[in-house]
Amino acid sequence: MATFLRASSRLRPLSRLPAIRPITTTTKPAASVAAAKVPEQTVSEELYFPNEPLKPTVRTAIPGPISKRAIEDLDKVFDTRSLNMMANYQNSFGNYIADPDGNVLLDVYAQIASIPVGYCNPALLAAATSPEMASAIINRPALGNFPQHDWANILRSGPLKIAPKGLDQVFTAMAGSDANEVAYKAAFMWKRRQERGGPDVEFSTDEISSAMNNQSPGSPHMSILSFKSAFHGRLFGSLSTTRSKPIHKLDIPAFDWPQASFPHLKYPLAEHATENAKEEARCLAETEDLIKNFHNPVAAVVVEPIQSEGGDNHASPAFFRGLREITRRHNVLLIVDEVQTGVGATGKFWAHEHWNMDDPPDMVTFSKKAQTAGYYYGNMDLRPNKPYRQFNTWMGDPARTILFKAIIHEIERLNLVENTANVGEHLYSGLERLAQQYPNEIQNLRGQGQGTFLAWDSPRRDDFLKRAKGLGVNIGGSGERAVRLRPMLIFQKHHADILLEATEKLISS
């Protein structure tokens, strides 16, 4: 195996990056306890990034001296207090993130789950340097007023090509928080149109005048129901549905909106099936009670398939099917927030596909790995009854939508959703073996059958994340105790073995 120095020297400037083409290599499992219990054999893989480093390189402490100087300089003009590490993206490639000091880390955090097909992906570079992209960047349109002539084709060949089942319309937005907020607006307008008697009923004089004073009936007393520990963004409306950490919400005025309990499952799931079913039934009953009785009537329920920022909290498909049944019965919309779980991360393109629902959600929001944002819907009644009700200058970004189109093409060309499902099984098995050997260090391992969207609780989580960088792995956390894995879709079994080996070193020391 090449030395760390030789591995990092493989990184090439953007102008000389090779095309990604799957090639077959033969490797042995990593020499860790997790891998050692696998029968000795060779493993063949098609490498998506054949020229990426063979393994991490750690030359200095992180941050190193060059990074420290860059951070000090940046702090003069930009708040650096949430900084994780200083990166050099020109030298990052595939699954590996580089810093200015020459450290090259296996990245299983991937910009908070938002890099889908690798750093400096040549296919995305080709899309980014195309005439189509150049026009979209320098002639950025106010989409509501002046959409470009091929906008419909961009949407059909991009976001709508992989739209969730039953949802054939899309409203583009700027970011995940924005996507959720415009979905909330759509829900409120839909609900009031129903109460008013239909789309053709005009606004009353009282509604028009009171709206300008932020008073009812023009500004009605309605709500969006979310769940405890949920995260749906940090803008004003989305923040009122975020319940994960006080630091997000302190000092910010919020709407008087309800929150229901999200199931707190016990692991291993197979050993606690009865208890977990009762817990999910309790949470569904609480949700229905709030829908029926909360003083500000509920227009929609918003839920994450996996509560990512709140601690990687899971629920069963039966819970979500029950939630769909309750919302349908009470004429309340169901919004599924797939900002973090969407675009292949869980072994299916959309995480809610795991629920096997006959009745799809009313709206599905997306961002992160899509590199753009928005929400899908199918019911045309979710379009406002008048122009300018869902409107801003940009209403999304054709440049980012073109990038999403290229991402979708890479996912399909390399069969990356299936790859994520397969690698997830391999990684989960390795972690499960480590959890059995170190039960105090890997607690409540979760995410089986959910691709590489895995997590566990650690009694010394923050120390684990910090020391991981010293072994050449960039990992993130969620909630108070969870270690969360958010690798890219190009993450493969040999990468998983590097991660397992590093994890064992960290938890055994």
Q: How would you describe this structure to a colleague?
A:
The protein has 509 residues and is of the alpha/beta class. The protein contains 17 helices and 17 strands. The chain has helices at 4-8, 33-36, 65-74, 110-113, 122-128, 131-138, 151-157, 176-196, 205-211, 236-239, 246-249, 273-293, 317-329, 398-413, 416-437, 461-470, 493-507; strands at 23-27, 43-47, 88-93, 96-98, 104-107, 169-173, 223-227, 259-260, 298-303, 333-337, 363-366, 373-377, 443-446, 455-457, 473-474, 476-478, 482-484. A seven-stranded mixed β-sheet has the order 6-12-11-10-9-7-8, with helices on both faces. Helix 6 (131-138) runs antiparallel to helix 14, helix 7 (151-157) runs parallel beside helix 14 (398-413) and helix 12 (273-293) runs parallel beside helix 13. It is globular, with a radius of gyration of 24 Å. The relative contact order is 0.15. Its cofactor is pyridoxal 5'-phosphate. Keywords: Aminotransferase, Pyridoxal phosphate, Transferase. InterPro entries: 4NH2But_aminotransferase_euk (IPR004631), Aminotrans_3 (IPR005814), PyrdxlP-dep_Trfase (IPR015424), PyrdxlP-dep_Trfase_major (IPR015421), PyrdxlP-dep_Trfase_small (IPR015422).
